[in-house]
């Protein structure tokens, strides 16, 4: 059995005991190490030389990738900011030798972790996100997981979730179109107006309908090229139909929310949210 191909089938990093269980004789592993085809990480793990650096680091330090680090790896909506690696320590792990900037989560998992896992299960990832991140950021990640069908809400309710995670599960909306919408919605509640997300108007969905006639559109990174042309066309149709459109971008929402809020409240003060 080819050692390199077998290690590759496990994502490039694997326990030596897993290879033994697959009937790979130890001398074949040592031969692959001597030839430089695989490298040994501590005593228990072997890896391909070009394996994922984060997986190699997790194996070397005895932790699992978790929280926002693993959420991003799973394709969930995570704010693109400079964030240190977040890892989970195994129960009774003792001292963990990781980089000083690494965030280590010691909480007991809600789902048991396999001894050969280097990436935390999604349920544990979400539970740690709920404890670690600000509420609106955590909610965006949770809604992203629900939107992608990575977790089942009914099954999640049966887990011993921390109170913070239970609260997110109660308020999460699986139909939110993006993390930006998740962040913006709660920020508008204080207005006391009817706010409908993903409202269907004139043949297209809009991100938010405030009152009867004020439309708030939020552009993510994909609003370029043909998508941008389609957006401009729909904006024109909305305005011809008697709606007022405010369109803002990602960086405005994340970095200049007061400016966005001023646009919205200014429009409301002028009565642009009301039907004629």
Automatic annotation (TrEMBL):
Keywords: Endonuclease, Hydrolase, Nuclease. InterPro entries: DUF559 (IPR007569). Residues 189-265 form the DUF559 domain. One of its GO terms (molecular function) is endonuclease activity. It comes from the Bacteria. Gene3D superfamilies: VSR Endonuclease. This is Endonuclease domain-containing protein.
């Amino acid at each position: 059995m080819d050692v390199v191909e077998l290690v590759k089938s496990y994502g490039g990093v694997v326990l030596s005991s897993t290879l033994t269980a697959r009937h790979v004789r130890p001398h074949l592993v040592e031969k692959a190490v001597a030839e430089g085809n695989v490298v040994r990480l501590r005593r228990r793990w072997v890896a391909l030389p070009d394996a994922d650096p984060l997986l190699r680091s997790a194996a070397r330090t005895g932790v699992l990738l978790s929280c926002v680090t693993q959420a991003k790896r799973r394709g969930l909506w995570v704010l693109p900011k400079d964030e240190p690696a977040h890892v989970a320590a195994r129960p009774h792990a003792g001292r963990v030798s990781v980089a000083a900037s690494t965030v280590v989560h010691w909480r007991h998992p809600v789902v048991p972790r396999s001894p050969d896992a280097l990436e935390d299960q999604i349920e544990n990832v979400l539970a740690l996100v709920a404890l670690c991140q600000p509420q609106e950021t955590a909610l965006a990640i949770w809604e992203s997981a629900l939107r992608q069908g990575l977790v089942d809400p009914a099954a999640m309710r049966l887990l011993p979730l921390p109170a913070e995670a239970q609260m997110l599960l109660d308020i999460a909306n699986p139909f939110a179109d993006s993390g930006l919408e998740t962040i913006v919605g709660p920020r508008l509640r204080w207005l006391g107006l009817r706010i409908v997300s993903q409202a269907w108007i004139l043949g297209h969905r809009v991100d938010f309908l405030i009152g009867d006639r004020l439309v708030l559109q939020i552009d993510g990174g994909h609003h370029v090229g043909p998508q941008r042309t389609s957006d401009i066309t729909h904006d024109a149709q909305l305005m011809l139909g008697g709606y007022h459109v405010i369109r803002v971008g990602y960086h405005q929402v994340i970095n200049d929310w007061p400016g966005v809020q001023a646009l919205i409240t200014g429009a409301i003060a002028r009565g642009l949210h009301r039907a004629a």
